[in-house]
Write a structure and sequence with these properties.
It contains seven helices and two strands. It has 193 residues and is mainly alpha-helical. It has one domain.
Length: 193
Amino acid sequence: MTNLSDFSADELDQILQAPGAVLRGAAVVDGEHGGIRFLREATAGGLAIRKAREHENDFVRSVALALRDKGEADAAAEAEAAANPAARVGVAAAAAATQEAAELGRPRDPEAEAAHAVELSGAVLTLLRARADEEDVAAYREWLLRIAARVAGAVRTREGGFFSRRVKVSAPEQAFLDRLAAAVGSDPVHPQG
């Protein structure tokens, strides 16, 4: 079995960031906006990530548990910073706060998010192929594809205008799924509708 301790801090960050990047990429790739749509897609992706805490593969399960732990640590750090604003004094903290404020409320660039998810996922799979067990690589790859497919299929999309039919997966979402599958070395994904 592959252990998370086998990877450097930077490599581990990439391994932990890929599922969230895939979720975001799949959610914004078709350019559709709306609170309910986002909520349904985020819920579908979040559920796929959360269910991995009970995954049959030990490596995927350990990644999902590490994601949970990181989320809890980040939330605790944010609560501490809110309770003690003086603790965030410094150039790096000021730069991070400025960047965060600049990005708050800005619509995401769908193509940039999708490209980032595909690039990061491909890099992580390349890393895992070099250092992890084949079984763990396959399970992680399938998990990323499952997250993307669940998000893409969470909301039906109207293609071709107001009077057109709704489809389970839009053309941009399917193109993202195909690009992601190619990047991670898998067959194309076609969510069941």
